[in-house]
Specification:
- This protein is α+β, with helices and mostly antiparallel strands.
- The protein contains four helices and three strands.
- Strands 1-2-3 form a three-stranded antiparallel beta sheet.
- A hairpin with an 8-residue loop joins strand 2 and strand 3.
- Helix 1 runs parallel beside helix 4.
- The longest helix has 21 residues.
- It is globular.
Length: 104
């Protein structure tokens, strides 16, 4: 499945906002490592796999994908270095939530 198909599937499962940000650390002249330190004053660091974090720093590529799936207050955020893998991970989360919601 290509990125557009994955994105369209994500959007179909998202009732509120959906955002993709690429390399936002460059807008403020920070390294990925420094920017991640800043982000994780807001997010939970255990939510970022150490291998993915290392690859984000190595590639100097930070992709943040956020989906407000059912309400404007609860969301999922994925950090990655690869857009396709990040979108795929988000789609799995959204599909899992949809399945849980249908079964309750």
């Amino acid at each position: 499945m290509d990125n557009i198909d994955i994105l369209n599937n994500c959007l179909a499962l998202t009732k509120c906002g959906f955002y993709i940000s690429v390399n936002e650390h460059k807008d403020v002249y920070e390294t990925t490592e420094k920017y991640i330190e800043h982000l994780f004053t807001i997010y939970e660091e255990e939510d970022l796999n150490p291998k993915i974090k290392a690859k984000i720093i190595e590639t100097n590529t930070l992709i943040r994908i956020t989906a407000y799936s059912r309400t404007p207050v609860g969301n999922y955020t994925i950090f990655h270095y690869d857009l396709n893998r990040g979108l795929t991970e988000m789609l799995k989360l959204l599909e899992s939530e949809e399945n849980d919601h249908e079964n309750n």
